[in-house]
Specification:
Rossmann fold; single chain; 13% strand; 5-stranded parallel sheet; alpha/beta
């Protein structure tokens, strides 16, 4: 039940508001003087304060000031029979949520009160979500105690308080976005937005509109102007995942933002300043991409101010038990299925697996095991076959090198073509689904499919 404090030196008005608010389902406390209101404000928390502007001892503005001191988030509504432009402006400047003139329409007053309480609820929920996010992305939530993971955590902690651009590099599934969020939520920008976008998942035209926004009529379907993600993230951070998949044209546009800290909407002429920290990520070797002229050298040096490499799980196997137990506790809670732990035999299998999908694969394996496990502890039979048999799911058979040697690049290319053809057959020609089966981005899959003539460019 929401609690409202009513402050008015007129008995009839206090009684009227008391009866009306209680009928609406609110808990009400009354104060007949400003000093009594001050005492109540010191001792209790209220969801809304409704105060008369003119009283004998203290004014409503005094109540407003004190309320903001002891409970800054509590909305204060002023009511008065002696309205003036100056008094309304003073009240609103001091933070009053509304200004109501007597005599008022009862139905309209109820709506104003409901709106004020709804705004307070939204503010409170927003603050709670931010606290939850900060807790979720504390440094200690980045699980791992291996020397390599400790080095990552140490670097993340150091760079969080800076505003420098960061390039997170690592294989798929190593937790690049999790690290990016940790950097943001432990930085001075934590109260501002964190915006994430996968650059490899969108064609150029749509990616440009998403990042920079567009003006009304700038292209077919642009029925109104729209802010881009750089504008939405103003004051905060933007995470550009798979930046290595962007086209050369898009790389030029991103370079301009990094250099000038200004964006221009699609179809617009206005230069819009943005204050955004850029955290980019890739699973490619961008230095090699620069040498092969697939990625602009000037953009590479702009985003590679602070390189942050993430080791694959196979290089920090001592973290597997800690990660597995962490995911077990998390998934068990979500499923409402408490398990005691992981059996020794199951843990040995987890530690022996190669984990080509890295931490994401481990989390999925634990989720599967919790869902299937009927005993009180995860057993080997609840693990997928590739973990139990010590092999990689869908892995190619071993390669024997003949006496005369072999052309490794050609052999690898043959394997890629064969795997892509099988994935297309399974997905009935849908390239986005085939790309997911192989852990490839859609942009990368589309490039190779066109190169090898496996699918139409528009399929």
């Amino acid at each position: 039940m929401e609690k409202i404090l009513v402050v008015d030196d007129e008995v009839s008005m206090r009684d009227f508001l008391d009866i009306m608010l209680r009928k609406e389902g609110y808990e009400v406390e009354l104060a007949g003087t400003g000093r009594e209101a001050m005492r109540l404000l010191e001792g209790g928390l209220y969801d809304l304060v409704i105060s008369d502007l003119s009283m004998g001892d203290l004014s409503g503005l005094d109540i407003l000031r004190r309320s903001k001191e002891v409970a800054a988030q509590t909305p204060v509504m002023m009511i008065t029979a002696y309205a003036s432009t100056e008094s309304a402006i003073d009240a609103l400047k001091l933070g009053a949520c509304d200004y109501v003139i007597k005599p008022f329409n009862v139905d309209e007053l109820k709506i104003v009160i409901r709106n004020a309480l709804e705004r307070r609820r939204l503010v409170s929920e927003n603050q709670e979500l931010k606290r939850e996010l900060r807790g979720r992305y504390r440094f200690e939530e980045l699980v791992g105690r291996s020397p390599k993971m400790k080095a990552v955590l140490s670097l993340v902690e150091k760079i969080s308080m800076t505003g420098s651009t960061v390039l997170v590099q690592g294989e798929s599934g190593t937790g690049k976005e999790l690290v990016a969020r940790a950097i943001h939520f432990n930085s001075p920008r934590a109260d501002k937005p964190f915006i994430s976008i996968n650059c490899g998942a969108l064609p150029d035209e749509l990616l440009e509109s998403e990042l920079f926004g567009h003006t009304k009529g700038s292209f077919t379907g642009a029925i109104s102007s729209k802010k881009g993600l750089f504008e939405v993230a103003d004051g905060g951070s933007i995470f550009l995942d798979e930046i290595g998949e962007t086209s050369t044209a898009m790389q030029v546009k991103l370079l301009r933002v990094l250099q000038e800290r200004r964006i221009r909407r699609v179809g617009g002429t206005e230069e819009i300043p943005v204050n955004v920290r850029i955290i980019a990520a890739t699973n490619q070797d961008l230095a090699q991409a620069v040498r092969e002229r697939r990625f602009r050298e000037d953009l590479f040096y702009r985003i590679n101010v602070i390189p942050l490499p993430l080791p694959p799980l196979r290089e920090k196997k001592e973290d597997i038990p800690t990660l597995a137990e962490h995911f077990l506790a998390k998934v068990s809670k979500e499923m409402g299925k408490p398990l005691k732990g992981i059996s020794r035999q199951a843990m040995e299998l987890l530690e022996a697996h190669a984990w080509p999908g890295n931490v994401r694969e481990l989390e999925n394996v634990i989720e599967r095991a919790v869902a299937l496990e009927s005993a009180g502890m995860i057993q080997p039979q609840s693990l997928p076959p590739e973990v139990c048999e010590g092999r990689v799911a869908g892995a190619a058979p071993g390669i024997e090198i003949p006496e005369e040697g072999l052309d490794l690049e050609s052999r690898l290319e043959d394997l890629r073509v064969d795997a892509m053809r099988q994935a297309l057959e399974r997905s009935e020609g849908v390239q986005s689904q085939a790309a997911r089966q192989l852990g490839m981005t859609f942009r990368s899959f589309r490039y190779f499919a066109k190169k090898y003539g496996l699918a139409r460019d528009d399929s």
